[in-house]
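Posting this for the archive.
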Amino acid sequence: MKCPYCGKHKTKVIDTRSSGEGIRRRRECKVCGQRFTTYERVAPMRLIVVKADGRREEFDQDKLLAGVCKACAKRPVSTEAIEELVSGIEGKLYSRGELEVESRVIGEMVMEQLRGLDDVAYVRFASVYRRFADVESLAQEIERLLERKRREGE
């Protein structure tokens, strides 16, 4: 570690503590005697989303959160539940260990989670995500949802 005061590479660690986002180390330069603090954290893996048209963009948790919030607007779904849903999906995406993920996979994960959270939010999200061609397609999706609910209820 290079001393920020004298620029020498002779430092020693005096104290190490875990902080919320990583490790905090208190260091002392063996040359000039100055003390300074360094912070270490794990560099997150950059996840790339591959869109249906082939475009690639960096995963954006805020964009996912905004989409789920729109689907849950004016529904009895708490902000905490929405944030937990989004964090859970993000965790699953990173735990896959892949650098790229298709947007379709993310959409399916969101729909699966919304199905258990709120039926109306699920239908709203599905209608945008699946781009239903007509009302009949939307009605078929609602019928599949109702059928699934009936099977789970038995």
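The helical segments are 61-71, 79-95, 103-117, 119-129, 135-153. The mean pLDDT is 89.
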